[in-house]
Design a protein that fits this description.
This protein is about 10% helix and about 45% strand. It is mainly β and about 80 residues long. The strands form two sheets. The protein has a five-stranded antiparallel beta sheet with strand order 1-2-7-4-5. It has a two-stranded antiparallel sheet with strand order 3-6. Strand 1 and strand 2 form a beta hairpin.
Length: about 80
């Protein structure tokens, strides 16, 4: 699995891409921890409207399940 995070200079926009080429059957859930966010801010997933605290994204992470071939994830968060 590879994950790449991009953050705008003002930390208002965060882009996360995750790519997996090989699935992990029956694997435990994975959490992708982001870095460099504002801990006190609320970040909204622009696709589904879910809201996450910056502290949650940095300490616990974004939930990700790697259970299919060539699975990818592209998420844009706005502060």
């Amino acid at each position: 699995m590879s994950a790449i995070e991009f953050i705008s200079e003002d930390k208002n926009t965060v882009i996360l891409t995750v790519n997996c080429s090989i699935p992990t059957p029956n694997a435990p859930d994975e959490y992708i921890r982001l870095e460099g966010l504002d801990e006190t801010a609320i970040y909204t997933d622009t696709e589904n409207g879910k809201k996450y605290g910056g502290d949650l994204l940095m300490n616990l992470g974004l939930h990700f399940v790697n259970n299919t071939d060539n699975q990818s994830l592209f998420v844009v968060f706005k502060k």
